[in-house]
C-alpha cells in the first residue's frame, strides 16, 4: 500500500531521474574539446558523442510506454536506471572515441525510458486532483538540468577531468535503484501486440538518415555510400507510412496527421529544431576552439542563454493570445534564424557586454520558439491519440536534436576543407559560415508555420492557457 511517505520518495526518485537525463543532454557539450584531446581526436569532429545519445533516445522512446505496460513501471524504471548508470560508467572508462560512442548508446537507451516511464508511474500512483501538482514538481529538475549542465561540465573538466561528468551519475543512480525497488508502484496494464515491424522501419529510417548526413563529415564515407543510405532512409520511412495504413495497432497511427495543428507543429519542430539543436554543440566549441575560453568560462557563457529563456516564458502566453500562433511562430522563427546568423559576427575583439547581450537575445527568442511550437503541436490532441501523439512528438524532438548536431558537424567539416583553415584560431571563418547556414535553415522553416490557418482568439487562448504544462516541455527545450 502506498503511504504519503513512499509516494513522496517515489516522486523524488522520478524527479532525480529526469534531472540526470536532462543534465546529460547538455553537460557533455563544454567538455568535448577536453575529451577530444584525451582521446586523440579533433574537437571539431566529436559530434558523434552527442548524436549517439540523442538518436538512441529518439529510437527507444516509442517502445518505453509499451514496455512499462507489459512488464510493470517499477521493473522497467529500475532497468532504465541500471542502463543509464552502466552507460555512464562505461563512458568514464572509455579509451577511444568508438568505445565512448558505444557507451553513449547504452546511456541513451536508459535515458529514453526515465521520463516516459516515470510520468506513467506518477499517473498510476497519484489521484487526478494530485497529478498536475506531482508532475509540475517533477518538471522542475528538467529545467534545472539544462541550466547548470554546461557550467557544471566546464567546472568538472577544469578542476578534475572530463570523466567526472559521467561518474557523478553513478552514486545518484545507485540510490535511485534502491528507492525505486522500495517505493515505486509496479503498475502494469494489458497491452496490444507491439508493432515490431513498424518500430523496425522507423528505427532503420532514422538511423540511416543520421548516418548519411554524418557520413561525409566524420565517418569518411564515400558519396555513393551516403546516397545509398539516404535512399534506404526514404524507403524505410515510406514503408512505415504504408504499413501504418494496414496495421491494426500501428506504433503511430497516420490519423494523427489529420489534425492540422499537430501536423504543422510536428513538421515545424523537426526543421526549426535542426538549427536549435546545432547551437548547444556549436557555441561551446566556438568559445573554446576559436576564442580560447576555458571549459568553465565557456559553460558560464551559456547562463545568459538559459536565464533569458526562462524569463521570456512569462510573456509567451500573452503574445500567443494576442497575435495567434501563426503570426508569433512565423515572426519568431525568422528572429531565431537571424539570432543564430548573428554569431557569424563574433570576433576575438568583441566587447564582453555585447557578447552577453547576443547570447541573451538568442536564448529569449529560442525559448519563445520552443514554447509556441510545443503548445501548438499538442493543443488539439484531446480529440484522441494523445498517448501516441505525445510519443511521436518526443521522438521527433530527439531526432531533430540529433540531426541538428549532425548537420552542424557536417557543415563545419565542409567549411574547414573549403576555406582551408586549421583548427585553432584560424577555424573562426568556418564557424562563421556554419552559423550563417544554420540560421538560414531555421529562418526558412518559418514557411511551415505560415501554412497555419489564422488563429481565432478562442483557439489561441485555449492553447496558451496550457503554456508551461509539464507534458509540453522536454529536456531539449533549454540549452
TrEMBL record:
Q: Which UniProt key words apply to this protein? A: Cell membrane, Membrane, Transmembrane, Transmembrane helix, Transport
Q: Where are the transmembrane segments?
A: 48-68, 75-95, 101-122, 134-156, 162-184, 196-213, 219-242, 262-283, 295-316, 328-346, 352-371, 392-415, 435-453
**Which Pfam families does the UniProt record give?**
MFS_1
Major facilitator superfamily (MFS) profile domain location = 10-457
Its annotated compartments are: Cell membrane
Q: Which Gene3D superfamilies does the annotation name?
A: MFS general substrate transporter like domains (1.20.1250.20), Multidrug resistance protein D (1.20.1720.10)
Which gene underlies this protein? mdtD
What is the native source organism of this protein?
Robbsia betulipollinis
| Name by which UniProt lists this protein | Multidrug transporter subunit MdtD
InterPro entries hit by this protein: EmrB-like (IPR004638), MFS (IPR011701), MFS_dom (IPR020846), MFS_trans_sf (IPR036259)
Work out whether the entry's keyword set contains Transmembrane helix: yes
Membrane topology type, per the record? Multi-pass membrane protein
- State the PANTHER family in the record: BLR6921 PROTEIN, MAJOR FACILITATOR SUPERFAMILY MULTIDRUG TRANSPORTER MFSC
